[in-house]
Design goal:
It comes from Egibacter rhizosphaerae. The chain is an alpha+beta fold. It has one domain: Dodecin subunit-like, CATH 3.30.1660.10. The protein has 1 helix and 3 strands; from the N terminus they run βαββ. A 3-stranded antiparallel beta sheet has the order 1-3-2. A hairpin with a 2-residue loop joins strand 2 and strand 3.
């Protein structure tokens, strides 16, 4: 059985709709330039506020992908 190594990077996705959409945006964008994405872990949720209301939902996501050297 082959041994594999995975790299983990931290991303922050944003959305005006929801935290779920913010997390999905981070993964979808990463998927355009990284190959073999494996796991995404939401590690923090927050939001920006403007004029007393929610301006953006933000999701900090750790994404792992197969490391090829």
């Amino acid at each position: 059985m082959a041994e594999n190594v995975y790299k983990v990077i931290e991303l922050v996705g944003t959305s005006t709709e929801s935290w779920e959409r913010a997390a999905a945006a981070a993964v979808e964008k990463a998927g355009r330039s990284l190959r073999d994405l494996r796991v995404a872990e939401v590690v923090k949720l927050d939001m920006t506020i403007e004029d007393g209301g929610v301006a953006q939902f933000r999701a900090k996501v750790n994404v792992s992908f197969k490391y090829e050297a």
